[in-house]
Design a protein that fits this description.
The protein has about 80 residues and is α+β, with helices and mostly antiparallel strands. The protein is about 20% helix and about 25% strand.
């Protein structure tokens, strides 16, 4: 089992942070917390029980959470065609 707790940042739409422990934000860099704003709990997942994630690479999420203690999901790039 590899639990993951996902929080939505309130400052920028579609920005999420994945954490291995619920409500444990003390190891996150202060500039990252400032970028995210208030964090709202979105969902809990077992990363070993899912085959893919909607907007993130599953293997990259596992690696970042193991090595850095979190994974930051930014909004997908939006292209404006003129």
């Amino acid at each position: 089992m590899m639990k993951c707790f996902i929080y939505r940042g309130t400052k920028k739409a579609e920005t999420y942070i994945y954490l291995p422990n619920k409500e444990q934000f003390d190891h996150l860099p202060s500039n990252l917390l400032a970028l995210l704003g208030q964090l709202e709990f979105a969902m809990e997942l077992d990363l070993l029980a899912v085959k893919q994630l909607a907007n993130a690479d599953l293997e990259q999420v596992k690696t970042k959470m193991t090595e850095e203690g979190y994974y930051l999901q930014l909004p997908p790039e939006q292209h404006i065609w003129t």
